[in-house]
Amino acid sequence: MPARDLIRAELARAGASPDEAARLAALLERAAEPARLDVPPHEVEAMLGRVRPARRGFRVPRLALGAAAAVAALLAVVLLVPRQQEDVQARALSALGGADSVLHLQLEIFSALPGTGGTTRREVWYDASRRRVRWTNFSDSGDPFSDTLVEPGRFERVLRGPRTRIVGTSCRAFAAGCAELIDPVTRYRESLARVDTRFVPMSFDGRRAYRLQLPLQGRIDQIVIVDRQTLLPRSIRWRERQDGGGVFVVATIELTDAELLERDDARRAFELPRGGRTVRVEPAGAKATERALPLEQARSRAPYWLGREGLTSFRELRYARGNVTVANYGTTDVWTFRDVLPPELLASRLSETKTLVLHGRPATFFSDGIRLSVVIEGAPSVAITAPQATKEDVIGLAERLQRLR
Amino acid sequence: MEHGDEERTFRRYQRDFDALFRAHYPEIVRYLAARLGSREAAADVAGDVFVEAFRRAGVLRWRGKPMLAWLYRVASNMAADQLRRSARETAVADVPERGAPDATETLPEREAVARALCTLPDDYQLVVHLRLVEDYAFDDVARVMGRTVGACQMLMLRAGRELREALEREGIRAGA
């Protein structure tokens, strides 16, 4: 048993006062006590005998298997059908789910864009036949902070911290833009369905695999490593071809776990957390006019700003479907918007970028190669755009954000 | 443990199911007993966890996390399924099987503490289990949970606070 003093010190290190740390250490010790059960060796051996089949056969992963019949069918296909490329491609497509199944994935997304480095952890439910995807983003401490559901004609995101539901008709109504929102597996599936590709046998992490090269958009392609047994993707790399002929890896998506679920078992996966207020958003449309706002007029709109120091101006941008207020600090802009998304904030690249929690709300960083933007969603939402900035610079600015009242 | 050693252990467990089972079955049982409130149910579900491990361990990829991390995740999912099924099927809850009561506290209070622990988020329960039941150092807890040491310590602090609040909602002054 760890010494209570040690636990107390660890709780204090995490931010508890000495008194609270002592009380919580005692409480946690009491809570843990009933689980300190003895599991004798004879029980271990008896259970091992029950769990381990007498004769070990070929290990078939549970991935991609819904029922025994499906196992038999899949093995029959693997063993009997000549391994023509088209056949492998068709099976790779079907491994992503069919009419009666939902693909459940755990992803770790490593962004390589300058200034936005870091890992985003995401859990995804992917329903190919109904063209819907739900994903949950997790913070570094493992807490879910946002849930997104995309289905035809509808886009919905729930921000757990501020208990806010943002609803739009497409990803273009969302400030982080379609680049952040489109799931990499969806893009992989679309390309696989559209383009004939070669499945090049290779070894990946000690296992037999295939390597595929598929287009994504423009100068960006994707290299996908597919497990040769399950035909599910294990790793996806998005690469951008440079002018000089080089290749820059924009993002790496590691699929840490994947399984096909029966549709009935996954029916609740597409229900987002309930409660909170709802905000409806849409793209702002074309810009009509722009005018400077005196401070007092700006105050009546309660926009976000960084304080008086360095403030150049407030501007009001009028678009076809609504207005946006911008506080300008030289090359840095602070955007406040509620139900319309200014087109200037749409991410212009396909790359996945880093999403963190700031002020208890999801903050998505993305870059257009010149400016780094961070969008903090809520009601209202706020964005900061800054040229040549790093993520740390922008976080520093975001911590200074306040409402002008 | 060094990274290379960890990977070797991971690979060994992929080849040697018996070693994996003997090394980790007891702690998975203890974890499930706390989650499910029943030693017997814990043994059954732990068996299912290792059947799953037998099927899938060979195809897992080394990603810097020990095989134990995967076992706990499967156990957590199966415990959640089991609890959902029990909630549907059981009209009258079984009395949880716990150890002998401590002389300094009443049985209802002990049950309340155990019950409150079960209501915490999965991650909170896991960090308490790994650190306080299995006595892992936070470095190892962090490896199993796939997080930083600081994040795990923060999780344990939150677990303690939520546990205290849950008990206070039941009128039990906790942490005194």
Brief overview:
Chain A has 405 residues and is of the alpha+beta class. Chain A contains nine helices and 24 strands. Chain A has three domains: 4-35; 68-270, Clam (outer membrane lipoprotein receptor (LolB), chain A); 285-403, no CATH class.
Protein model, in words:
The complex is a heterodimer of chains A (405) and B (176). Chain A is built from 9 helices and 24 strands. Chain A has 3 domains: 4-35; 68-270, outer membrane lipoprotein receptor (LolB), chain A; 285-403, no CATH class. In chain A, the strands form 4 sheets. A 12-stranded mixed beta sheet of chain A has the order 7-8-9-10-11-1-2-3-4-5-6-12. In chain A, strands 14-16-17-18-23-22-21-20 form an 8-stranded antiparallel beta sheet. In chain A, strands 13-19 form a two-stranded parallel ribbon. In chain A, α1 (4-13) crosses α2 (18-32). Chain A is of the alpha+beta class and 405 residues long. With 176 residues, chain B is mainly alpha-helical. Chain B has 2 domains: 1-97, Rna Polymerase Sigma Factor, Chain: A (Orthogonal Bundle), CATH 1.10.1740; 102-176, Arc Repressor Mutant, subunit A (Orthogonal Bundle). Chain B contains 8 helices and no strands. The longest helix of chain B is centred in the middle third of the chain and has 23 residues, at 67-89. Chain B is globular. The chains are: A alpha+beta (405), B mainly alpha (176). At the A-B interface, α1, α2, α3 and β11 of A face α2, α3, α5, α6 and α8 of B.
